[in-house]
Amino acid sequence: MARLMRGAPVAKALVEEVAGRASALASAGVVPKLAVVRVGAREADLSYERGIEKRCAACGIELEHVLLGDRCTSAELVSAIERVGEDATVHGCLLMRPLPEGLDEAAACAAIAPEKDVDCATAASLLGVFEGRAVGFPPCTAEAVMQVLRHYGVALAGADACVVGRSLVIGRPVSMMLMGADATVTTCHSRTRDLAAHCRAADVVVVAAGHAGIFDASCAAPGQVVVDVGINWDEEAGRLVGDVDFGAVEPVVGAITPVPGGVGAVTTACLAMHVVEAAERSVGR
Ligand code: NAP
């Protein structure tokens, strides 16, 4: 039976650490603050925002909601984001994406002040991830993957890691971060010839393809660590499932994250961590 790497203990430990750092900052007169910029009121955004609200409250982070109507223009959105950038009391800026159709997402992302970019929306943050420098921040989900591996003591230096997916929000940044942790990384995608062979050969696999069950028993190897980032709705079962066929893979591998209750449970804690780190950087800590 595989070791179950649940997200909740990871998030709990992160929240404790982040709350301590936020409290130290507050004692020095700096209250970490996150601005969430939202256009319209889609349920997915509202639900994510509720999760952020709870997490920030637990960490001692102030939250400011910057709300724009469905009919706002790209110029109005850019101005609102620029105002957040100019506000010295705000340390982090999160733009709810994807934006409603018709808005210029690239322009909106580019308007975020790089030092406040807590979810890797800007080119500066991406460059920081690729160069391994503390410029901006990696995407919160990519960070969550790394925090799960760290919390459960997964050795990465010298390990063979396989990442399934090459998107800019998960696959590529996770590949870079694993490489930064001295793993030897293979990044697979939809044109990879033999996905199962690459996966089987790895000590650590991160699956972020957005296809339920793409990582099945043929991809799994004994002792392997499997992190499932996928979130898919299974119509038949009427529940969320990951990209890993949990029932078939869990008996084979050494450790595995569940879905739900795995990586997804750690994302807002990583966001909180980024906000506090941005506040620390703003005062040269
Ligand atoms: P995405 O932009 O659609 O990228 C999917 C990647 O998977 C692409 O690089 C694609 O390859 C690759 N892929 C697709 N089919 C494949 C196949 N048969 N074999 C190998 N690779 C394949 O998705 P994403 O935004 O990265 O998200 C990935 C998953 O993570 C989704 O299920 C999403 O819902 C989930 N997610 C989870 C969280 C969380 O907090 N847990 C947060 C965000 C997203 P190509 O580049 O060749 O097309």
Protein model, in words:
With 285 residues, the chain is α/β, with parallel strands linked by helices. It has helices spanning 7-27, 43-59, 74-86, 105-110, 123-131, 140-151, 171-180, 195-200, 246-249, 267-282; strands spanning 3-4, 33-39, 62-68, 92-95, 160-164, 184-188, 204-207, 225-228, 232-234, 239-241, 255-256. The chain has 2 domains: 29-113, 3-Layer(aba) Sandwich (Rossmann fold); 140-264, 3-Layer(aba) Sandwich (Rossmann fold). It contains 10 helices and 11 strands. Strands 1-11-8-7-5-6 form a 6-stranded parallel sheet. The mean pLDDT is 97. Bound molecules: NADP nicotinamide-adenine-dinucleotide phosphate. NADP nicotinamide-adenine-dinucleotide phosphate is lined by residues 141, 164-167, 169-171, 188-192, 195, 208-211, 214, 229-232, 263-264, 267. NADP nicotinamide-adenine-dinucleotide phosphate binds next to loops. This is Bifunctional protein FolD. Keywords: Amino-acid biosynthesis, Histidine biosynthesis, Hydrolase, Methionine biosynthesis, Multifunctional enzyme, NADP, One-carbon metabolism, Oxidoreductase, Purine biosynthesis.
Write the layout of secondary structure elements.
Elements: E1 3-4, H1 7-27, E2 33-39, H2 43-59, E3 62-68, H3 74-86, E4 92-95, H4 105-110, H5 123-131, H6 140-151, E5 160-164, H7 171-180, E6 184-188, H8 195-200, E7 204-207, E8 225-228, E9 232-234, E10 239-241, H9 246-249, E11 255-256, H10 267-282
Parallel strand pairs: 1-11, 2-3, 2-4, 5-6, 5-7, 7-8, 8-11
Antiparallel strand pairs: 9-10
Helix pairs in contact: 1-10, 2-10, 6-7, 6-10
Bound molecules: NADP nicotinamide-adenine-dinucleotide phosphate.
